[in-house]
Amino acid sequence: MAAAAAAPALSFPTTLHPPLHQHPRRRRRRRGAEPPACVYSERGITFDPGSAFYRSDSAAGRDLAVLAATLHRRRLRRPDPSAPFLCLDAMCGCGVRALRYLAQAGADFVWANDASDALRPVIVNNLSRFERAAAPEAMARRWVVSHLDATRLLAERFLRREYFDVIDVDSFGGDAAYIRAALLALRIGGLLYLTSTDWRSARGYGSRSSLSSYGAYIRPVPYPNEVGLRMLIGGAVREAAILGFHITPLFSYYAYHGPIFRVMVQLCYGKQDGISNYGFICHCKSCGQSRTFGFDELGQITCGCADKTDPSSITVVGPLWIGPLHDTTFLTEMLSLATEWGWANTIENGVTLEKLLDTMIEESDSRLPPGYIRLDEIASRAKVNSPPLGTLINSLRKEGYAACRSHIGANAIKTSCPIDACLEVAREIRNLR
Ligand SMILES: C[S@@+](CC[C@H](N)C(=O)[O-])C[C@H]1O[C@@H](n2cnc3c(N)ncnc32)[C@H](O)[C@@H]1O
């Protein structure tokens, strides 16, 4: 795709999300007859999900991946500029991600893999239909389809020293089992897109499972979905450190449907001194304050509030990622690209990318500590009615604190303001009215 051009729109006939009673697979058909194609569309790219697991709700997560992969491709400075830009969709379902990396992110070559070989006709059909329409004269295929266990495929590519620029792992449940193999098969500087739907571990209802999968002991806190994202990043931090690298989170995205936790991390050269931004979050139920602690403070974890005497009021989770959830510069460039392509203002499956990315950019302020506070908690602790979200954020900013909405908690704020001062600001807002 040309650098400044809009994302290509294809001319396949489009039937958007047919109602269930009209779904082609539900109609009676003659034995042996080919099922009619049920064509879906994402940002102008059409495909047939066939019998694969496909959620149209996850389109925003795929939009973010395409924007990130495109930026990464544009930013690349390789010793060999002719080296192809390679993307792997390690658990591809119907191949929609592979298709979008090929069609929209400008990948030179995509590898679409799914353990289920029953999906082969669906994946091949989607990729070849695109290629025929986009470049009818092309002699060489720009994709390959395989049906291997993802770990085996990743390990094989690593052993052959064939590395990818982008690896997308979108499994059912958690991704922990694939992180190390995926990092091995990734080029240094490459992007790894991880997904987890293991909300029980992420929210602290399966502490032993989060410990065995991600090395983090997670217990319930008032901002469990942010902790889920931090646990996923923390897992990648730990695996990268074991391999002698480090990672930088480019963005973290929680979506309510599913629910789904997604993080895009970049593999960076060399081990960091110790593991920075990897530690513990301590939440005090008594005063509502959260704090972060490094490994060198283990044994000294306590809350500074008056109720120091009650150790049961403190919940400690970790080790996990305690740094910023996103990279501000990268997200700002993603938003510019979404605007350039006309994606920013359109609502797709209930998500407006501009609104989402704006909130994520605000969340990436490095002054903001982990966690968020819900307005009803502020109201109940301050013993006032809930202050309006925007007014509270503006007042906190006027006081010199970082404050913003959270893309994760709808009625919540993230702020660097200590809880006592925040309650005071909420009271002032209510008393002034
Ligand atoms: C959540 S679906 C993928 C959806 C797809 N990425 C999308 O965006 O529509 C997970 C897919 O992973 C495949 N899968 C599960 N375990 C796998 C494994 N170990 N290796 C490769 N594929 C696997 C399943 O067959 C399934 O199609």
Automatic annotation (TrEMBL):
CDD domains: AdoMet_MTases
GO MF annotation terms: tRNA (guanine(26)-N2)-dimethyltransferase activity; tRNA binding
Low complexity compositional bias, start-end: 1-19
Protein name according to UniProt: tRNA (guanine(26)-N(2))-dimethyltransferase
Superkingdom classification of source: Eukaryota
Species per Swiss-Prot/TrEMBL record: Leersia perrieri
Region (Disordered): 1-35
Matching InterPro entries: SAM-dependent_MTases_sf, Trm1, tRNA_met_Trm1_C
